[in-house]
Amino acid sequence: MAADNSHAAGSRCNVIQVAQQARQSSQRLAASSGESRRAALLAVAAQLRRRCGEIVAANQQDCRRAEQQRLSTPLLKRLRLEPAGVEKLCQAIEELAHRPDPLNQKLESRQLDQHLILHRRTVPIGVIGFIFESRPDALIQIVSLALKSANCAILKGGSEAQATNSRLVQIIGEAAAQVKEIPAHWLALLPDRQAVQELLQLEDYIDLVIPRGSNQFVQHIMRHSNIPVLGHADGICHLYIDREVDSQMAQRLAIDGKCQYVAVCNALETILLHRTIAPKLLPQLVGALQERGVETRGCEQCRSLMPKLAAATEEDWRTEYLNTVVALRIVQNLEAAIAHINHYGSHHTDAIVSSNRERANFFMQRVDSASVIHNASTRFADGYRYGLGAEVGIATGKLHARGPVGLAGLLSYKWYLYGSGEVVADYVGQAARPFLHRDLKDE
Q1: CB within 8 A of 421, min separation 6: which ones?
Q2: For the chain, first and last CA: distance in Å?
Q3: C-alpha distances in Å from residue 106, one per residue of 190, 298, 400, 409
Q4: What is the Cα–Cα distance from 151 to 183, expressed in whole angstroms?
Q5: Average pLDDT over residues 212-235
Q6: Among residues 230, 249, 214, 234, which one has the least CA distance to residue 349?
Q7: Is 395 left (phi over 0), alpha (psi -120 to 50) or beta?
Q8: The dihedral formed by the CA atoms of 172, 173, 178 and 183, expressed in degrees to the nearest 10
Q9: DSSP state of 355
């Protein structure tokens, strides 16, 4: 994408024209070679590294404006992009670039008849609208995965990251344009919310919308568009501490899940404790959390053990804090923990810490979440950490993609049928020719 073909935030753009151009470019990008997309990604990483100073300066501009507007601390943390962060993202892009080409991969092959062969192969989705929050690093991950999977990307980032996002799209566009096979108009940045509203009506040109934001925001997107939507609303993640447990491990997982980075969707919001271990473990756990500046709120049973705990309300069980607050609840048994999570959770990521693998498996089979974890932190539920290269978001639905959405989540498939003049008439009626329907493993 040449620089003069990009649509930068803050400029006036014709959304229909952007979508039409992306649709046209999607056909060429889908036919591009894996080598050309690899070269484009390496060029992107090189340019981001070389122009890191420009990116950081733009980000500092956004951060100053956000501080003046009294943006919340969690959002400010998401917004900030340091040189070390840029370098880490460049390394991730290079790692992604060297992965095998995800396109045209044979998923299955079947011989319908002697000379009638069917294949199912991976293809890009096409044109995807990505609407995301204030994290500039999310833009880089999204665009890298889109390019690797040969999808055209129409972006709308948070207004608080306007300067950073504009500079990133400019740099990425200029870098990818160095590779001849990469078409123009595969990448665009929408300027404002009004442009998003227009985009949501363009089902003839947009194949999928992936929103990242609040529950209210995602629900708004779903209600106001006929375009398929892939995403999640809240990240209300739980850690259940079972009756058979290593107490030190439980504390370590709770601290990491809550404190390692509070402003993300896979951070802990609620900790459930089995009633038999609560009297001993609860004071230790609350003390460790409070030492790290975490406000702890407890149920009535928790407060009977620790009267100074702030009271947790019904609303706390439904809240994604994205901050240094956690709710604690004592449950009667494993089944009660599962019932709580399935009732109040957001089907994102939930974990159990237990020394009993059978009980852990019972929990993992019955908790209806995209990621279920045994004896590890909920913070592992991430596209990069899962080895997906990166992620464009988390999907909590059950169609197409679920959990961290990486390359595989940006692919669809196509059926390829090869024949030698066969017609259906030969396969019906009393003298019908039978199908072989033989799976081919090595074709």
Answers
A1: none
A2: 37
A3: 35, 52, 18, 16
A4: 11
A5: 83
A6: 234
A7: beta
A8: 130
A9: S
What is the predicted pLDDT for the residue at 442?
65
| Structure confidence by residue, pLDDT tens digits, 23-66 | 999 999 999 999 999 999 999 999 999 999 999 999 999 999 99
5: pLDDT strictly greater than 70: no
CA 161-221-206 angle, 5° bins: 85
Query: Which contiguous run of DSSP H or E holds residue 223?
Result: helix 215-223
**Strand ranges across the sheet with 152-156:** 187-189, 152-156, 127-131, 208-211
pLDDT, tens digit, 9 for 90 and up, residues 73-98: 878 888 999 999 999 999 999 999 99
Burial environment of residue 441 by CB neighbours within 10 A (0 to 12, 13 to 18, 19 or more)? exposed
pTM, two decimal places: 0.85
User: How many angstroms separate the most distant Cα atoms in the chain?
Assistant: 84
Q: Report yes or no: 264 and 235 within 8 Å, Cβ to Cβ.
A: yes
Let me know: does 328 contact 274? Beta carbons within 8 Å: no
Whether the Cβ atoms of residue 158 and residue 69 lie closer than 8 Å to each other: no
Nearest residue to 207 via CA among 435, 414, 412: 412
What pLDDT is recorded for position 353?
98
Res 71 pLDDT > 70: yes
CA-CA distance, 235 to 360, in Å (whole number)? Answer: 22
DSSP 433: P
Query: What does the pLDDT read at residue 213?
Result: 73
CA 428 to chain centre: 47
Q: Map tokens 């919308």 to a residue.
A: 209
Q: Are 320 and 234 in contact (CB under 8 A)?
A: yes
**Confidence class of residue 9 from pLDDT cuts 50, 70 and 90?**
very low
Q: 231 Cβ partners below 8 Å, 6+ apart?
A: 210, 211, 212, 218, 221, 393, 394, 395, 396
pLDDT band at 384 (very low <50, low <70, confident <90, very high): confident
Please give the C-alpha separations between residue 284 and each of 77, 251, 303, 323, 439, in angstroms, as whole numbers. 29, 8, 14, 21, 58
Q: What pairs with residue 416 in β-bridges?
A: 119
**Local structure of residue 112 (DSSP, 8 states):** E
Asked whether residue 332 carries a pLDDT value surpassing 50, the answer given is yes
